């Protein structure tokens, strides 16, 4: 090995051996930033006002159809996420969630769909849906048995 390559070789193994020294000097503690909830409340209100202003341009009878307001809702969600990060809060957090729930109650409270009631199909349809797979299974079994009996003739 060339002596010029030794320092590079050593760099790959620094810290792998018990004889290497470990720095135990204190490091500056990581300072966790505190979430400013009062400012977040104000910032989220700003996002909500923008959303309300945008929703005012949409006919209220279209408020239950997501395709009519998806871009406005996306902007609102993005705004709350950015504002949360700006004031050192995680997202979503209980404060933002409660505000989003208030927005939903205000705009989308009448958007619940009717409960779908499931009915059994008529007896004739049900019998056909059951018998078709049964007969297909029997036909496939019969075909396999018939072909296996004829294998000596076909070979």
UniProtKB/TrEMBL annotation:
GO terms for molecular function: coreceptor activity. The chain crosses the membrane at residues 126-147. It is found in: Cell membrane. It is a single-pass type I membrane protein. Signal peptide: none annotated. GO terms for cellular component: plasma membrane. One of its GO terms (biological process) is regulation of G protein-coupled receptor signaling pathway. This is Receptor activity-modifying protein 3. It comes from Oryzias latipes. The gene is RAMP3.
């Amino acid at each position: 090995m060339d002596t010029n390559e030794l320092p590079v070789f050593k760099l790959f193994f620094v810290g792998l051996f018990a004889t290497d020294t470990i720095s135990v000097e204190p490091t500056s503690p990581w300072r966790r930033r505190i979430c400013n909830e009062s400012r977040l409340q104000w910032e989220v209100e700003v996002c909500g006002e923008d959303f309300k202003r945008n929703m005012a341009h949409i006919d209220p009878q279209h408020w239950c159809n997501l395709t009519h307001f998806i871009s406005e809702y996306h902007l609102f969600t993005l705004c709350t996420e950015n504002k949360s990060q700006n004031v050192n809060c995680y997202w979503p957090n209980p404060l933002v969630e409660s505000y989003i729930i208030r927005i939903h109650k205000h705009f989308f409270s009448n958007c619940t769909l009717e409960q779908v009631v499931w009915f059994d199909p008529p007896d004739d349809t049900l019998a056909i849906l059951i018998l078709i797979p049964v007969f297909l299974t029997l036909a496939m079994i019969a075909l396999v048995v018939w072909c296996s009996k004829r294998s000596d003739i076909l070979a």
